[in-house]
Amino acid sequence: MTPVTVVPKVIDQLDTLTSTLPQSGFTVIATVSWPQSDTALCRVTGSVALSTAPVLAGKLIETVHEGRPHLVIDLSAVAFLDSTGLHAALDILDSYDIDGHLAVVIDPRSEALSRPELSVLSEIVDIHHDLASALRTCARASISTGGRHRAAV
């Protein structure tokens, strides 16, 4: 498991890559592993905000395109979780027409998302309160006639 810091890059006049922090000061760190042969796990730390959503979505898309149909996004250790930023990242991810199952892990003790926000989020992705549950769901999706990316609305 190799940690990857996901921070926007810019190319300066000398064609060198320079890390830049978003104007809001938020950063997001995504660490990817493969706990099951058909499932990628992206553990997210830092801040999920509107300003970090495109960067996080880019990492999630890159992870899905590595050949595993199912994705678990573990948000249980984020320091800041803005529902608008999370929805933006999921909308970007959804535009890539992922066929597999998508599960999100959120710490139930976290005050980052209110109950109404959590309810809205559960309409578009499967919410789990622990990683084991999310991984079991992805394993079952592989056995069935295909996983589902979004819950039926």
Plain-language structure description:
The structure is a single chain. The protein has 153 residues and is α/β, with parallel strands linked by helices. Helix content is 29%, strand content 32%. The protein contains four helices and eight strands, in the order βββββαβαβαβα. A six-stranded mixed β-sheet has the order 1-4-5-6-7-8, with helices on both faces. The chain has a two-stranded antiparallel sheet with strand order 2-3. A hairpin with a 2-residue loop joins strand 4 and strand 5 (39-48). Helix 1 runs parallel beside helix 2 (83-94). The model is unreliable at 1-22 (pLDDT under 50).
List its traits:
two-stranded antiparallel sheet; 29% helix; 153 residues; alpha/beta; 32% strand; 8 strands; disordered N terminus; six-stranded mixed sheet
Helix/sheet category = alpha/beta
Distance between the termini: 35 Å
C-alpha Rg (nearest Å): 15 Å
Number of E-state strands = 8
Major sheet attributes: 6 strands, mixed
How many DSSP H or I helices?
4
Unreliable residue stretches: 1-22
Oligomeric organization of the protein chains:
single chain
